[in-house]
Amino acid sequence: MNKPTIIVLLILLISSCSNNNQTENKNIEIENLRAENDSLKKIVAEINNKYVFDSLTVRDIPYYKNTYEMNSNVRGEIVFVGYNNDRQSTRVIMIDSISYNPKKLHNPDTLDLRIGGFPYENKLDADKIYWRAEIYTKHKYGKEFEVSLSNIAQVKKN
Fold first, then answer.
1. Is the overall model pTM greater than 0.85, yes or no?
2. Taking a C-beta distance cutoff of 8 angstroms, is the pair 142, 51 a contact?
3. How would you class 44 by CB atoms within 10 Å of its CB: exposed for 0-12, middle for 13-18, buried for 19 or more?
4. Which of 113, 101, 53, 106 is nearest to 81 (CA)?
5. Domain count within the chain
6. What's the gap between Cα 136 and its chain centre?
7. Is 118 exposed, middle or buried (0-12, 13-18, 19+ CB in 10 A)?
């Protein structure tokens, strides 16, 4: 054979070997990406079954039966409170009542969010007062949470 033909054959042989190596490398890369994609799908599925919050705060809630008398025990509970900073995703609305089918809040008053809490104040102008709230939170990931809260306060009698 003549030299140019041998050179051309050698070039073709070398280039075909490098193409095989590139194909093998690409196949390995594709398999790695598939495994990573599968693991990310599992993480997303797990997140979508949990409540997800933007922020977290700690609250110390005193026990309502504390007397604060000398030598008495003072009890309380420390809780972690997760909340979302977006007014659309987390809200507490004080209401007089609620109707369903379709859902309607009667006399709604949206409370302001302050460091994960929704402060409110009700005047104790009768022996007993009642209040209700509609509580809702939803992050762009995870589950939404909605509940109605009812509460009562009464004048302490000696």
1. no
2. yes
3. exposed
4. 53
5. 2
6. 12
7. middle
**Measuring CA to CA, which residue among 145, 139, 141 is closest to residue 47?**
141
Q: Is 65:96 a contact under the CB 8 Å cutoff?
A: no
Token pair of 13 as six digits: 């042989």
List pLDDT tens digits, range 32-74. Answer: 888 889 888 888 888 888 888 888 787 888 888 888 777 878 8
**Is 36 found in the same domain as 84?**
no
85 and 143 assigned to the same domain = yes
Q: Cα(81)–Cα(145) distance, rounded to whole angstroms?
A: 14
Shared domain check, 107 and 146:
yes
Among candidate residues 47, 63, 79, the one where a domain is terminated: 47
- The parent domain of residue 67 ranges over 55-154
